[in-house]
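Q: Please design a sequence for this.
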């Protein structure tokens, strides 16, 4: 679903904002207020905190999903474009519409969150 969403013509998402970034430009910074998640349509982005790169995102990847789930949270990492990138901005209303019309979308978001949690757990368990 995420791959399909990223590759679909954005005319089907007239209420979905297309965000364009140049290489080196930040999508958001750690600590920023959070109000949307993003689906990578084109390009690559890095999820970073300080000098640590947590993940490199490619088309079909998502970032900012915690903002949709935990509305009171701030950004837990920064996201910077590694190349020219285009992303679909999914606000809470659009997210709820996607979940209602395609429950598999919510499963995919939860799978991303679970994978990221497992990676972080493994990183911290290896430090002890």
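A: Design:
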């Amino acid at each position: 679903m995420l791959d399909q969403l990223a590759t679909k013509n954005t005319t089907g998402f007239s209420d979905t904002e297309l965000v364009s970034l140049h290489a080196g430009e930040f999508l958001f910074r750690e600590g920023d207020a959070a109000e949307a998640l993003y689906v990578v349509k084109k390009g690559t982005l890095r999820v970073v905190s300080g000098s640590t790169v947590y993940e490199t995102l490619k088309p079909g990847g998502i970032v900012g999903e915690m903002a949709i789930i935990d509305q009171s949270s701030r950004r837990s990492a920064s996201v910077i474009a590694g190349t020219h990138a285009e992303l679909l901005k999914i606000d809470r209303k659009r997210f709820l519409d996607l979940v209602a019309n395609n429950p598999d979308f919510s499963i995919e978001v939860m799978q991303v969150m679970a994978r990221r949690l497992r990676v972080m757990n493994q990183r911290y368990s290896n430090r002890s």
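Q: Thanks. Anything notable?
A: The first helix runs from residue 2 to 7. The radius of gyration is 14 Å.
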